[in-house]
Amino acid sequence: FFLLVIRLLKKCHSLSFFLHLFTNFKKNHFAMGIFTNYSTPYKYITNKAFIIIAHVVSTISDKINSFIITGVLSYGYVKAFSVLFLLYMPFYGVAQKEANNWYFGYNAGITFNTDPPSNLADGQMVAPFGCTTFSDKNGNLLFYTNGQDVWNKNHQVMQNGHFAGNENFRESTISTLAIPFNQDENKYHLFCITSYDGQNKNQKGDNPGLYYYIVEPYFNNYQGNVSDPINVVTGPTFEKMAMTRHRNGKDWWIIVHENDTDRYISFLINENGVDNNPIYSQIGIVIEDIPGTLYNWEGYFRFSPNGEFFAVAHSYDIQKFELFKFNNETGQLYDLISFDCFGDPFGVEFSPDNSKLYVANYIRNVDPSIPDTLFQLDISNYNYSSILNSKTELLIASPSFDLGSLQMGPNQKIYFSRNNSNYLGAINNPNEPGLACGIELNAISLNGNIAFHSLPVFTQSYLNPADFSFENACAGTEVEFTLTNNYNV
To answer: What count of other Cβ atoms lies within 10 Å of the Cβ of residue 112?
Structure first.
């Protein structure tokens, strides 16, 4: 190929001129602009592949060093032409894809391994409420669970993956969360939390609390294995939890709420597992177990992608929404702002840039005559009046569906479940204010499968990580790095 190019260039002075223009980079910055604008198809080439290809091309150019293009090019220019397409092209860090596959609802599923996301029809799970899914860094499915059963990548229940007697797990608002071990990505921490009904404990568990399992998805050629529960981490607790990164970037925090108190409990998860010395934050309302009250324990917990904010929806009789700041170094909640103007708040989610907060109420379940509503709040000025004044009504549900949970996807759109629907809705531009956020009611078809109240829950760290691009990665050159997403550094 290169020999042919050189022979053609000998006979075509106009092509020779353009070759000179592109190769003499230091004198012709126009070349950089050209390659930057047309580099998008190559942005997924990894650093290793880049270096290998560059060396191969450079070696080939060495073999043709006896050819000189008369009057225009020297050997140096020929060699520069050989590697220029690689040398001055921007490359991008490869985003993690642990949250690329979602299974939820009644055998429903979607994948973000395609663009736009597409339907998955092979799910075996029925998840009326909480569930989670985990994939590897390349977006290959590893396991999914509703808290009652754990399915492997082949959609079979893992060894010890049916939690007999714990059917109440799958009735929890947020029933399961998973993260890999710090120093062993062949194993995963799996946390399950029981649903709690003070009026009928036998129905929903005599020992409500946070349980801890170990999942080995690669065991026995991907058949998978689940350990017996290590123990009840803490209890009794209400049926929701959330997880975020520690400030050190490697450890994790998981947070739950103690029953009949105003105490949140934060547990550190590090290379030694779950730390048995929890951090208590005595703040916010008391969530009481009062006979005759309705489902005070339902509603979502959610951390912002940067781990600095924490939102809580209290549904039914409480009907409050609380927003906190979180110290992701100490595990403490502080600086509470409380709202009581959302009817029956249920689903909550932050925008990728941490400036907006979305709240979906589920008031139709309390009063069928009142439709569910989706709201946006601007929390960039963290004070009560500013946030309340920014409250924008985005969507009023029709009689044909109820609103459920909200969950950001790997594409930085926010999806919302529509109970008993064959579609997911989407907020396409969640960083934008008000109606500019772009509500789409039928964003993804589930191909006949059904969504219920909840979507799979993930730690936000996997959904909007900081990322960077780099240029000039050959030995002996100066490498230039650029942040392409600095929201959650």
So the answer is: 20
**Alpha helices for 12-123 (secondary structure H):** 13-23, 30-37, 47-63, 75-87
Residues 171 and 204: beta-carbon distance below 8 Å: yes
Q: How many helices (H) and strands (E) does the chain have?
A: 8, 33
* DSSP annotation string for 303-369: E-TTSSEEEEEE-TTS-EEEEEEEETTTTEEEEEEEE--SSSEEEEEE-TTSSEEEEEE-GGGT-TT
For 298, 330, 358, 425, 457, the CA distances from 333, given in Å and listed in that order, are 20, 9, 20, 32, 21
Dist. CA 442–CA 415, nearest whole Å: 10
Neighbours of 291 (CB within 10 A): 6
pTM (2 decimals)? 0.77
The torsion defined by the Cα of 155, 160, 163 and 165, in degrees rounded to 10, comes to 130
Distance CA(328)–CA(224), nearest Å, equals: 32
Which residue would you say has higher pLDDT here, 202 or 355? 355
- Amino acid letter, 486: N
Asked if residue 236 has a cis previous peptide bond (ω within 30° of 0), the answer is yes
Task: Please give the residue that has the higher pLDDT: either 258 or 253.
Answer: 253
Main-chain phi, psi angles of 47, to 5 degrees: -60, -40
CB-based burial label for 63 (10 Å; 0-12, 13-18, 19+): exposed
Question: What is the helix (H) or strand (E) element at residue 221, kind and residue range?
Answer: helix 219-222
CB within 8 A of 41, min separation 6: which ones? none
CA–CA dist 132, 458 (Å, integer): 7
Average pLDDT over residues 316-335: 90
The number of residues in the chain equals 489
Three-point CA angle 372, 409, 303, nearest 5°: 75
